[in-house]
Design goal:
34% of the residues lie in helices and 26% in strands. It has 576 residues and is an alpha+beta fold.
Length: 576
């Protein structure tokens, strides 16, 4: 048993020699300093730390430094989840902080600034050095209403993060996401919030400057707008945040030195105009890029921000970044799809004597494209062809199918001098062989001007809602004749044609079912609502007629796209 005892004695002597070496090194540091082991327990402390903390070394060595010393501004133990010093300790990295508090042996609080860094003791175990200093006199522990805010509890912090996630991820609208973010933060954490976003052209735009005034959120648009470019080397807090470098605390004095950039000038102006005395500035950074910066400011609200507040604000900013990134990606997709749709849908022809207008609205939750479509074009014999159709679906595949059907229809209508029913019959026979369309509905019509000047409509209906004819006096009639089976059923049943004369000054409306269909309501109810509003709008201009119908008739819970084609005959007929 003698050999193990001799080994233990040698380890103790080695550790004692290391501790003596560490204490000697610490004595050369003018600020308070102590070293902790890999468990966070103090193993060495210098005389300046004993003096500042009003604790002898024997009361410090062997104790957990965080539990013994670290407090919040009201003198309560600092939760480890909020302790940036503890986070740096576990990560084994160098970090610094200011505006925090240590508990002294006499019960008072010591305001400190600190630096923490990994430290080599010469021993085999990892250690960490903490250096701290105090620029103010110690203060009695306990609430100080004039300067100290009531800190959020750990449960409140977790609840705020959960609420932030729920609120921000449930919208794909950038402006709505920002509005919700502001409402979550003000006045709960601050009385000012400033959001600077980097646009897709790498320009900085001060998107929001909001202040809580008597419980009401007031947007200060005079402080919003374009910002100077982000400097590449500036050490100033906002510049660093916009580069995604670091989160920082700031105050009015931060920007009192000669400005190093245009952004610094704008920041000085912000602090002067808002009266913010303490600010926390963090990056809004997604996994792909830096999207901007979030600034929380306190002017009237008690308590200054400390580095212990930064982890929570950074967590909120990360959640905001996810929401903003998703919204931007969604908007880019919608823009591409909208451009595609605009190229798929045709320009309307100019027909002497006729007014003609078309509208297309995408499904609210789709990608700005769909299977609903309209078309109007001149035929080889001078007549005008009109078409409205609906290919199953409202996505890119449906839009591609719609383009196929429309192009085949145009080719047949131009080349074949046949009634609408025969043109659609040919189209139906071709659909299953030369397109990817499983099923579709449509109305195809031919509009001719007779020798007496009247306009005559002939059409066939392939499973589509009937056209609506509205007289100048507000009388309405659904053109229910000419109805046949929808396209894609592989039926050989002959299709019927129907004809009608359009009275002078009348309006003809072709539309898709998204205009009238609503969950829990029959098509007859939708048609009745359409006829009622169309009659009331008969005196409006054709553009107003179409826009108001979409606004009034389209169901609020509609989840389908809508295509609409309207034309109006002249009030006076002119013989050819």
């Amino acid at each position: 048993m003698a050999e193990p005892e001799r080994t233990e004695s040698m380890d103790q002597r080695s550790r004692g020699a290391a501790d003596t070496t560490v204490c000697g090194a610490l004595s050369a540091i003018g600020a308070g300093a102590y070293v902790v082991d890999d468990k966070g327990c103090i193993i060495a402390v210098n005389a300046r730390a004993e003096q500042l903390l009003a604790r002898p070394a024997e009361d410090l060595v062997g104790r957990d430094a965080h539990d013994l010393l670290h407090r919040d501004a009201s003198g309560q133990p600092m939760p480890t989840s909020r302790c940036s010093m503890r986070q740096a300790f576990h990560a084994g990295r160098t970090a610094q902080g200011e505006g925090e508090w240590f508990a002294r042996g006499d019960g008072s609080l010591l305001p400190i600034n600190w630096v923490i860094t990994p430290y080599d003791t010469g021993d085999r175990e990892a250690a960490t050095l903490v250096v701290f200093h105090c620029d103010q006199q110690p203060q009695e522990a306990g609430p100080r209403p004039e300067t100290v805010r009531e800190a959020l509890t750990e449960l409140e912090r977790l609840a705020l993060l959960a609420e932030t996630t729920t609120q921000l991820t449930s919208t794909l609208d950038t402006n709505e996401a920002l509005r919700r973010l502001v409402a979550l933060l003000v006045p709960r954490l601050a009385d000012w919030v400033v959001i600077d976003l980097i646009t897709e052209r790498d320009e900085v735009w001060r998107t929001a400057v909001v202040h809580a005034e008597d419980g009401v959120l007031v947007r200060h648009e005079e402080l919003q707008g374009p910002m100077p470019p982000v400097p590449e080397e500036s050490p100033m807090p906002l510049s660093r945040a916009l580069r995604g470098v670091a989160s920082t605390l700031a105050g009015p004095t931060t920007y009192q030195q000669p400005p190093d950039s245009g952004i610094a000038v704008e920041q000085r102006h912000l602090f002067e105009r808002t009266g913010i005395r303490s600010a926390a500035i963090v990056p809004i950074r997604s996994t792909r890029e830096v999207l901007g910066a979030l600034t929380l400011g306190r002017a009237e609200k008690a308590g200054d921000f400390t580095t212990a507040d930064l982890p929570l604000i950074e967590d909120i900013a990360r959640r905001a970044a996810v929401a903003l990134d998703n919204a931007r990606l969604y908007q880019r997709q919608r823009k591409v799809a909208e451009t595609m749709q605009n190229h798929l849908l045709p320009q309307l022809p100019r027909v002497p004597g006729l007014e003609m207008i078309a509208r297309y609205l995408p499904a609210p939750h789709a990608s700005q494209v769909g299977g609903d479509w309209y078309d109007a074009f001149r035929l080889s014999d001078g007549a005008t062809a009109l078409a409205v159709g609906d290919v199953v679906g409202h996505d890119l595949e449906a839009a591609a199918g719609m383009a196929q059907v429309r192009n085949v229809l145009r080719a047949y209508a131009w080349s074949q001098q046949e009634p609408p029913s025969r043109i659609v019959q040919r189209l139906d026979e071709a659909i299953t062989h030369i397109t990817n369309v499983p099923m579709a509905t449509m109305i195809f019509a031919r509009l001719d001007q007779a020798d007496n000047g009247h306009w005559e409509l002939s059409w066939t209906n392939a499973g589509h809602p009937p056209p609506l004819l509205v007289s100048r006096d507000g009388l309405t009639r659904c053109l229910t004749d000419g109805h046949g089976i929808l396209l894609g059923t592989d039926s050989r049943t002959p299709r019927p044609d129907a004809t009608a004369v359009l009275p002078p000054g009348s309006t003809l409306l072709l539309y898709t079912d998204g205009l009238i269909e609503a969950a829990g309501h029959s098509l007859d109810e939708g048609l009745g609502r359409l006829r009622q509003h169309a009659a009331a709008l008969a005196h409006r201009s054709l553009a107003s007629f179409a826009d108001q119908l979409l606004r009034r008739v389209r169901p609020a819970d509609n989840d389908d796209d809508v295509a609409l084609l309207a034309l109006r005959t002249p009030v006076e007929t002119r013989a050819r």
